[in-house]
Amino acid sequence: QVQLVESGGGLVQPGGSLTLSCAASGFPFSSYQMSWYRQAPGKERGLVAFITSDDGHTYYIAPVKGRFTISRDNARNTLFLQMNSLRSDDTAVYYCKARSSEGYDYWGQGTQVTVSS
């Protein structure tokens, strides 16, 4: 079955960096658009970035543009999110999502990122 497992979260000081990973299995990873979402306490889950399946086109929300980089390794069925210059308002649970060409969405269980001094 489809499985998405995030890792790499943790506690980091403001200005620091983290790299999140999402290991995928049970579906043709290279054919799926992949995304990172986040949910801060008391807020709704929202899109952070996505990367397309075909040409690897990327999109970022304005608050993370220039600080975060989404990438994928189709040979390893893994999605990444490199996060630099982290701020306190980046604190959230980060989720990866896979979307099939038919529009079905699959979610991971999330990984906590806490930015605090």
- What summary fits the major beta sheet? 7 strands, mixed
Structural class: mainly beta
Cα-atom radius of gyration: 13 Å
Supply the number of helical segments: 0
Shape: globular
Oligomer: single chain
The overall pLDDT, averaged over residues, is 97
Ends: how far apart? 40 Å
Record field, number of beta strands: 11
Give the percentage of residues in beta strands.
over 45%
How helical, in percent, are the residues? under 10%
User: What is the element string, with H for helices and E for strands?
Assistant: EEEEEEEEEEE
Low-confidence stretches: none
Task: Name its key features.
117 residues; mainly beta; seven-stranded mixed sheet; four-stranded antiparallel sheet; 11 strands
Give a written overview of the molecule.
The structure is a single chain. It is globular, with a radius of gyration of 13 Å. Helix content is 0%, strand content 51%. Strands 2, 4, 5, 6, 9, 10 and 11 form a seven-stranded mixed beta sheet that branches. A four-stranded antiparallel beta sheet has the order 1-3-8-7, with no helix packed on it. It is mostly beta strands and 117 residues long. It is built from no helices and eleven strands. The protein starts with a strand and ends with a strand.
Helix/strand layout:
Blueprint: E1 3-7, E2 10-12, E3 18-25, E4 33-39, E5 46-51, E6 58-60, E7 68-73, E8 78-83, E9 92-99, E10 105-107, E11 111-115
Parallel strand pairs: 2-11
Antiparallel strand pairs: 1-3, 3-8, 4-5, 4-9, 5-6, 7-8, 9-10, 9-11
